[in-house]
């Protein structure tokens, strides 16, 4: 299986459908979320070549084939100061940028790239974006001239450091459950289909926090043994869950603010179109993020729209698995505009 070395002590595993049989194709680099790694996107890969799209799905650190975080880094995420955690996330963003630059050079990718982060993966993408001014000069030039699209797919509200709305519930942080019970309940909760109220209202009382639809069943229930090929059930406890917990919310809030709304950062990424998109049958915290970002972008009142927004009707958090053709249609529509 392919891996790529960023430096002597750091490598990443990735899935790759290979170069389409045309000279100028688009490359979509996928960054996965909590627990479910790059194989979550594997149903997209065989569908992409006929559309002249190359998909590269990386495994983040802590996940199979990629270099794990060191214990000191895990401890920083769990109990470090705000400054220490902010510096670590910035460093992880730089590493991700160097990975993408290495992929561009070693795979000879055309300079037409979309970076797509899904779920928790968005934290690492915004870390990359916000770190643009501390990237090595050649890496900065490579990415800012090659990355045409930045796509924020289903970021959960806790990844932005947003407090829970009244009634908000996420089983991953349920203090009444054991860590094992939290993860098991979360796996069903996040993979379910949800019917909410009037989403145009941006009113938290219209969100469904606890009662998913019975049909369709959660994606996790239809996976069977395949679930174990898509997930690493140990990675969250090592570091991912710590990133999302309340003690890190101030760091995350500042990180997103810099990545999306800092004038100098956005000027550096002037050649990239930013799009946020989500499924309207996803969990409440994904929709809540969309509302927050839409309101922030509107209040920024900039001459150029900072972030574009797209909603996938009827899609849950795992649309790339349940409806890969539809998910790829939506991604293709974004990268072709």
Automatic annotation (TrEMBL):
Residue span, AB hydrolase-1 domain: 28-328
Residue ranges of coiled coil: none
Pfam families according to UniProt: Abhydrolase_6 (PF12697)
Top-rank taxon: Eukaryota
Protein name per UniProt: AB hydrolase-1 domain-containing protein
Protein's organism: Gymnopilus dilepis
